[in-house]
Design brief:
Helix 2 packs across helix 3. The radius of gyration is 20 Å and the shape is elongated. By secondary structure, it is α+β, with helices and mostly antiparallel strands. It contains five helices and four strands; from the N terminus they run H-H-H-E-H-E-E-H-E. It has two domains: 41 residues, Winged helix-like DNA-binding domain superfamily/Winged helix DNA-binding domain (Arc Repressor Mutant, subunit A), CATH 1.10.10.10; 81 residues, 2-Layer Sandwich (Alpha-Beta Plaits).
Amino acid sequence: MTELDHTDRRILRVLQRRGRISNAELAEEVSLSASACHRRLARLEETGTIAGYAAHLDRAAIGLGSNVFVEVTLAAQTEEALEAFEAAVARIPEILECHLMAGSADYLLKIVVADTEDFARLHRKHLARLPSVARLQSSFVLKKVRETTELPV
């Protein structure tokens, strides 16, 4: 883990909100010279503190306005079953996140689809065919109350 000082944290906060900001604007916002800001930014990237840059898309604007969370319980919890399940999940682009869980379900999936019909298609063609699955429990998101990618740094 990289030691982050107050200035590093300020840089990270600004970048999380305005990822396309120029180095000159970033430097001004965090009260550094452009060269000092560039050096810090390069260090944050090299150490992996900044893992990458991405554009946040409006899901509804691209026809993927429904979110579904699916709890998955596996029939077996052998290493082979876990690996086969995780490999299969990685090939389904609608699955945005897959988490191995402690609790009543083995995995929690975050899925994006156009609507309930699209989810039915995804369920038939992919989810129902995932290896070692004993049970799937799906929950549709009715309203997004809060969603952010900003980490509290």
